[in-house]
Design brief:
single chain, 193 residues, alpha+beta, Jelly Rolls, two-stranded antiparallel sheet, 22% helix, globular
Length: 193
Amino acid sequence: MPVLTLTRTRFDEPTTLRLAKKQTRRIGCMGLALCAILLVAGPTVAEEAGGNTMEEVKTQTTPSPVRMNPDKLAGVDLTAGEPFIAPENLLEGSHRPRGDSLYWGKELVVEVFEDDPATHAIAEPFPVDEYVMVLSGKLILTDADGQVQEFVAGDSLMVPKGFTGTWQMLGNYRELIVVERESYENALKAAEE
């Protein structure tokens, strides 16, 4: 005779949160971050997975999951960007940024970023709270108090708004970043002024 197992559903906890907690053990930090993106995403999504400009954003009548472009995550054909580190803040190495936007939603922006090995000073307070998942290479952050933290492929971290110190990228450094859209847009506008 088959055994019937009943489970009690907890209604005081949203189903999406309960499912996210259950999945956390299997999918790890990156999966949880991407689930969070999809749970809070608004109705605007990239026209095709891996779109890289705001012009490619369209409005849908209903929100739908957006697959992160695996080629872009792997660093294939990333778009060359304009250097944004002031020459006086580049302590060693070179600065040739490459990257693309993977998602430009109502609340969040997801991008993949790659750069040459380099160390640069974060002299001005970091303008946003930024989730970072190291995809390749190594990241060494040293805060203003001299505390050193190292992150390798698969590690994730939060760079808090206001961080100052040094940012060192080793090897073929590539990262996935998630930032709150309004703060990100404000930081971009401030950088252009």
